Amino acid sequence: METQKEALLVVNKLEVVYFHVSTAIQGVSFQISEGQVFALIGANGAGKTTTLRTISGFLGSDNAYITDGEVRFMGERLNGLSPYKITSRGIALVPERSKVFETLTTEENLAVSISRAGTQKEMERKTYEYFPKLHERRKHLAGLLSGGERQMLAMGQALLCSPKLLLVDELSLGLAPILVTHLVNTLMQIKQDFGLTILMVEQNAVVALNTADYAAVMENGRIVFDGTPERLLSHQDVREFYLGLHETGEKSYRDVKQYRRSRRWWG
């Protein structure tokens, strides 16, 4: 990976425990360089979202705590900082789309976010340019928006914080492939326009590996394999378990469900 001196974000030997008894992630280490798209892939419960919540400071609401290791952003240690303070330093979280304020309108949801650069109206205008559907639905309650529109709203809220690092949690979850493609393309355009760095969490390995510059596989709270998308796609275990493929083509759901990874991750 990149050296620590070059890294925008450094996660070093991180351990997080829920309710003082249940270890969610253990010994997690990775680094992200400025301008990079880094993906964490893995099954539900692997520890991906906990990693994002740790970086963004939202652990306390889940009665979870960092018990070892650290998170550094632009050289500053983030352990123990509140979500507001972390956001003010340039990190914004795009949570799962269900986290929008359902009883507020679209424009009221956007107004909740605080811009650190330019006026609020200017940033709102840019957000509506990326997501014209939100402009059409600006007077609608967020609870009445479609799944795709809620995801656009979550992305728009994060954009209004003028981040340097964008944390994206399960962008593709429950959405039609054509809409996922549109959202990913828009995200990459935003990245280019604003010079963002992106850490994305995905169960959909195809989406992640088609988007990322570098990726890591999480299992049971640990990173078990990492590399470029090309390296992961060439690894038999990644292909079989996360893409449902083997040398002779697509496997059945039963085959994938019963598959047990060998101990070749570090081979």
Describe the structure.
This protein is an alpha/beta fold and 267 residues long. Helix content is 35%, strand content 27%. It has eleven helices and twelve strands. The strands form three sheets. It has a six-stranded mixed β-sheet with strand order 6-7-8-3-9-10, with helices on both faces. Strands 2-1-4-5 form a four-stranded antiparallel β-sheet, covered by helices on one side. A hairpin with a 2-residue loop joins strand 11 (245-246) and strand 12 (249-250). Helix 6 runs parallel beside helix 7. The model is unreliable at 251-260 (pLDDT under 50).
Supply the helix-strand structural class. alpha/beta
Largest sheet, strands/sense/barrel: 6 strands, mixed
Low-confidence stretches: 251-260
Mean pLDDT: 86
Give the ordered list of helices and strands. EEEHEEHEHHHHEHEHEEHHEEH
Helical segment count: 11
Give the amount of beta strand, in percent: 25-35%
Provide key terms for this protein.
267 residues; 27% strand; 4-stranded antiparallel β-sheet; 11 helices; 12 strands; single chain; alpha/beta
Topology diagram in text:
Elements: E1 7-18, E2 22-33, E3 37-41, H1 48-56, E4 64-73, E5 76-77, H2 83-88, E6 91-94, H3 106-112, H4 120-130, H5 132-136, H6 147-159, E7 165-169, H7 177-194, E8 197-202, H8 205-211, E9 214-219, E10 222-227, H9 229-233, H10 236-242, E11 245-246, E12 249-250, H11 253-258
Parallel strand pairs: 3-8, 3-9, 6-7, 7-8
Antiparallel strand pairs: 1-2, 1-4, 4-5, 9-10, 11-12
Helix pairs in contact: 6-7
